[in-house]
Design a protein that fits this description.
single chain, 120 residues, alpha/beta
Length: 120
């Protein structure tokens, strides 16, 4: 039986430690063979844009671009529809393989059998 992990990141550079923890947990889970769906909400939505993760700095943490690459190697990254709209982010703006989806999809993923949801 395979366990799935859905992680919602509610912070960006405004709460760097919380943001970094979410990306780190997601990357470690992917590396451990867990199916991961990482949701970018609020200020973390900016990290779906090319180059934005490179601007993020937090001492003693893995570089955000490396974590994103690790997550994308075996997981999925999604930007919240409303969060994207509030920031004028469209599907043509985001990194390759990043999708924009709404609350219905998040709830569906989070409520799936054998799934654990975390919110940072």
């Amino acid at each position: 039986m395979s366990k799935k992990l859905v992680i919602k990141v509610t912070a960006g550079a405004d709460s760097a430690e919380r943001c970094s923890q979410a990306f780190t947990v997601a990357a470690v889970a992917v590396a451990s063979g867990v199916e991961v769906s990482l949701w970018l909400t609020g200020e973390s939505a900016w990290f779906a844009l090319p180059g934005r993760a490179a601007e993020f700095e937090l001492p003693h943490s893995a570089p955000l671009p490396d974590l994103i690459e690790s997550i994308q190697a075996g997981g999925r990254i999604t930007v919240c529809t409303q969060c994207a709209a509030r920031r004028d982010i469209t599907e043509k703006d985001v990194l390759k393989d990043v999708r924009i989806a709404g609350a219905q999809v998040f709830v569906q993923e989070a409520m799936a059998q054998d799934t654990q949801a975390l919110v940072y």
